[in-house]
Amino acid sequence: MTKLVCIFLLLLICSLDNVSTAWCHKPYIWGEMQFKTSASSNGSLASTEAVPLYNKQNNHFAGYNSYLHAVTLYYGATGTLDVYESLSASDGQIGSSIMVAMFEEPHMDTINIIQVGWNIQPSYYGDNKTHFLIGWTSDGYLTTGCFDLKCNGFVLDHKNSPITPGDTLDGKSKISLKIFKSKDTGDWWLHFAHAGQKFAPVGYWPKSLFNALKFYANYVSWGGYVTTYDEEPNPPMGNGNWPGPDSAQIQDMQFIKKDETSYRPGPVPGLSSRVTDEACYKVSDFMIDHFSYGGPGGCTNS
Fold first, then answer.
1. Which residues contact 261 (CB under 8 A, 6 or more apart)?
2. Whose C-alpha in 105, 120, 257, 263 is 20 to 30 A from the C-alpha of 48?
3. Please, are residues 46 and 187 in contact by the beta-carbon 8 Å criterion?
4. Of 15-24, 103-112, 167-176, 237-246, the least confident
5. Total Cβ atoms within 10 A of residue 69
6. Other CB atoms closer than 10 Å to residue 148's CB: what's the count?
7. Percent over 90 (pLDDT), the chain
8. What percent of the chain is predicted at pLDDT more than 70?
9. Cross-strand pairs, 66
10. Beta partners for 118?
11. Region 122-130: what's the mean pLDDT?
12. What Rg value do the Cα atoms of the chain yield, rounded?
């Protein structure tokens, strides 16, 4: 299987309190990979692989996380994401809003991830357009998992799906996402809706893909993410505006229970904000079930 390496995951995992970050600074880490797409010998098929970058990358996140050590167990989450086009994402850069459901244990090879959102990454998609992104792994993307439909795993609902992973998202819009563990089968389903429409099933991740996520998740994160190389300006996050009425938002945030009912985050267990570089990006206060985030970028790291 081709190894696809998740740049998103680097920052999220390195930020966790009880995970050693020594490995985060090794020569070939996830943050120093990019996706390379090449055609087959007959020109009809393309393969995608992760290749090392020799430039150091800088990764930034602004959003909200559930408390990792909370007693509460999660069986899914929802969120409505503002989607934007034409962020200044040069080759190797990403601008994205993401929602992650995650079971975390002390060792990298036991981390299970399901993630969905939108992504601008020219080195992966071959264009500057905004794409619908999904991803999964059962060992921190070391040997399992991939993005979109680049490997066996996610089962697309060909009959009912309103969108296919990897499709472009044109124009400023909103998309609603729902990840939940089926109480009947135990599989993790993904539902999707464009603004003003009803949820429809995209497909599911079979429970057999996972070890820890066979049972439940213990960590959920919503936010914006960008990455760039040293000495290059960081790209905008969201729509490039500071948090406020005219900035990117994530709305309708809810946790999902075992019986598939949902509830808003409250003071217990609640959420904690995280911003990795407040000179470039910020996040607003959490307001019942939504927040705004983003920033113009333009900072450099040397």
1. none
2. 105
3. no
4. 15-24
5. 11
6. 20
7. 42
8. 72
9. 271
10. 97, 132
11. 85
12. 18
pTM for this prediction: 0.81
Written as six digits, the tokens of 13 are 């995992």
CB atoms within 10 A of CB 172: 13
For position 294, what pLDDT does the model report? 93
Query: What span, in angstroms and rounded, lies between the C-alpha atoms of 253 and 67?
Result: 15
- What type of residue is 212? A
**Which structure tokens are listed for 256?**
């999902």
> Using CA atoms, how far apart are residues 194 and 184, in angstroms rounded to an integer?
26
3-state secondary structure the chain: CCCCCCHHHHHHHHCCCCCCCHHHHCCCCHHHEEEEEEECCCCCCEEEEEEECCCCEEEEEEEEEECCCCCCCECEEEEEEEECCCCCCCCCCEEEEEEEEEECCCCHHHCEEEEEEEEECHHHHCCCCCEEEEEEECCCCCCCCEECCCCCCCEECCCCCCCCCCCECCCCEEEEEEEEECCCCCCEEEEEEECCCCCEEEEEECHHHCCHHHCCECEEEEEEEEEEECCCCCCCECCCCCCCCCCEEEEEEEEECCCCCEECCCCCCCEEEEECCCCCCEECCCECCEEEEEECCCCCCC
Residue 14: count other Cβ atoms within 10 Å of its Cβ.
18
Amino acid at 276: T
Question: What tens digit of pLDDT does each residue of 38-69 get?
Answer: 343 443 334 334 333 334 667 889 999 888 76
Residue 44 CA neighbour count, 13 Å, CB half: 1
Other beta carbons less than 10 A from residue 200's beta carbon = 14
Omega before 269 within 30 of 0, i.e. cis: yes
Closest CA to 155 of 118, 111, 185: 185
d(CA 10, CA 21): 10
Decide: 234 and 280 in contact? Cβ < 8 Å. Answer: yes
